[in-house]
Each structure stands twice: as structure tokens, then as C-alpha cells.
Specification:
279 residues; alpha/beta; eight-stranded mixed beta sheet; two-stranded antiparallel sheet; 12 strands
């Protein structure tokens, strides 16, 4: 074999090895982001054999695709465990429809808004009715206990602080699924539960759900990703904010809302004012 041929082959081999090394380096350069999601929160998060689905499951997959410097891996657990892990640093990101809470926004980083929820009072079809939290108090309706780690608990607690002379009878509990809570209303154990419209719609065709109805909208709440505080996650928050801004502006969030939340919350009265209100 001629010397020139040997040189050419050696050069090609070197280039091939260099190419493989570069590709491997690029793949390994992606920073793994651990995402924690609570169980039992359809249609927002659905645990499937192919990973997270639902509104936030599809959203986090889109963010994962658009931010190649990160690799997002989702774990499902109880809501209390989500926050315990987020506090300790076991998880980087908490994924659900988490609304504004002053203490949480101080304890964790938060992104710009990633969705908008339409709040309703879920009631028994033949039971007592109300169209506002004030009416719930006035008519002395009983409210399904709410997990203290749930954004709804903070919402109702804030209402009581703002109305000290007309408080809801609010009771805190541990974890509870949407289905179990609404079943208690359907069975007459409690008069009313406060939930986003999409959560009510997700159980409407079940045996318990057929005995339920929802009030008119009682308000809108923006939701946010929460992140464990660390230097690396500060940069991650900035990257996610830029991506969420893009996904809002190009209509992707609205597309997801239409697909999973049974209505376009971005078209409801007051939506423009409420969306991203706490960022």
C-alpha cells in the first residue's frame, strides 16, 4: 500500500473518532433536570407508560425538546413528597398547576406563568347551590377539606384572611385525589368543593361525576413551575422563562389549553389581566 493511501486512511479514521467523540460530548453535556409531579391530577398531569401526558406533561416535553442543553426527567409521587423533595433539592422542578403563594414564591424560584385556570364551585345536582365564596359562607355550605399543600388551600385561606367576619369553614388534610374529593360532594358528605373547571370536567362522565354540576366562574388563577433554589436552577429558571414567553406568544399554550382544559381560558373575561399577574 502506498504511503499516501496510509496517510489518507489514518486521517479519515482520526476524523471519524473525533466526530464520535464530539457527538458523545454533546450528548453528555445536557444537564439532567429532575421534575416531580403529583399523582391524581388529570387532565393536567397524566401518568402513562410513555411518561407524563396531559397539559403539563406535554408542555414539559416541548420545553425538553426546545432546550437541548437540558434533559428533563419526570417522577410521579404524592403532592407532599413533591414539596419535601423540592425543598431538599432531590427535585429541581415541581410541575402542576401551582398558583401564587407568597411563602412558596419566597422559598423557591418560580417561572413566569405556564397556564391559566378557571375556578368553579363543584356542587351536587340536587343539593345546595352557590355562585361565589361569599354565598358559600352566607348559606353555610360545607366545604370539602383541602390538602394544606394544595394551591386551593392557600386561595381559601387568603379569602378567610380578607373576610375575617365571614369566614369559610376551611379544614386542612393530607393528600387527596380530585376524584375522591368530588365523590364526597356527589355522596352528600359535603356541599361544595373548589376546583378548576377542567378538574370537574375530567370526572363528569364517572358515576359520581354524573351527580355533580359546576357553578359559573368564580375567578382565574395563573399557574407557575416552582424550582429548588440553587445557582444552576437560577439559570434554568431564566431559560424556562424565555421558552414560556415564546410558547405563550406563538399560541402554543393556548393550543394546549384547548386540547386539555375543555375551554380556552385565555379568552375568558379578565384573562389578560390575570395571566402572569404575580411574576
Amino acid at each position: 500500500m502506498k504511503l499516501s493511501q496510509l496517510v489518507t486512511r489514518a486521517a479519515l479514521a482520526s476524523l471519524t473518532i473525533l466526530g464520535l467523540s464530539t457527538a458523545a460530548g454533546s450528548a453528555s453535556a445536557a444537564t439532567t433536570v429532575t421534575v416531580a409531579a403529583p399523582n391524581g391530577n388529570s387532565p393536567y398531569i397524566i401518568n402513562t407508560d410513555h411518561g407524563a401526558s396531559g397539559y403539563y406533561g406535554e408542555l414539559i416535553k416541548r420545553i425538553d425538546r426546545d432546550l437541548p442543553q437540558y434533559k428533563f426527567k419526570t417522577t410521579f409521587t404524592s403532592q407532599n413528597a413533591v414539596f419535601a423533595g423540592l425543598q431538599s433539592g432531590k427535585y429541581d422542578v415541581a410541575m402542576s398547576n401551582f398558583w401564587y403563594n407568597k411563602q412558596r414564591f419566597n422559598n423557591y424560584y418560580h417561572t413566569r406563568a405556564n397556564g391559566l385556570d378557571d375556578l368553579r364551585l363543584v356542587e351536587r345536582k340536587n343539593g345546595k347551590k352557590a355562585n361565589s365564596l361569599a354565598e358559600v359562607v352566607k348559606k353555610k355550605l360545607t366545604v370539602v377539606p383541602v390538602s394544606t399543600s394544595d394551591a386551593r388551600y392557600s386561595l381559601l385561606e387568603n379569602y378567610n384572611q380578607q373576610h375575617p367576619n365571614n369566614k369559610l369553614n376551611l379544614k386542612g388534610i393530607g393528600d387527596q385525589t380530585t376524584g375522591d374529593a368530588l365523590k364526597q360532594v356527589a355522596q352528600g358528605k359535603y356541599d361544595v368543593a373548589v376546583y378548576p373547571y377542567a378538574a370537574y370536567k375530567s370526572v363528569q362522565t364517572t358515576s359520581a361525576g354524573k351527580n355533580l354540576t359546576a357553578s359559573k366562574s368564580i375567578g382565574l388563577e395563573s399557574s407557575y413551575f416552582l424550582l429548588h433554589k440553587s445557582p444552576a436552577n437560577k439559570k434554568l429558571t431564566q431559560a424556562m422563562n424565555k421558552e414560556l414567553q415564546k410558547l405563550h406568544d406563538d399560541g402554543y399554550l393556548e393550543k394546549l389549553t384547548n386540547k386539555y382544559l375543555y375551554e380556552n381560558t385565555f379568552k375568558l373575561p379578565g384573562a389578560q389581566k390575570e395571566f402572569n399577574a404575580h411574576n
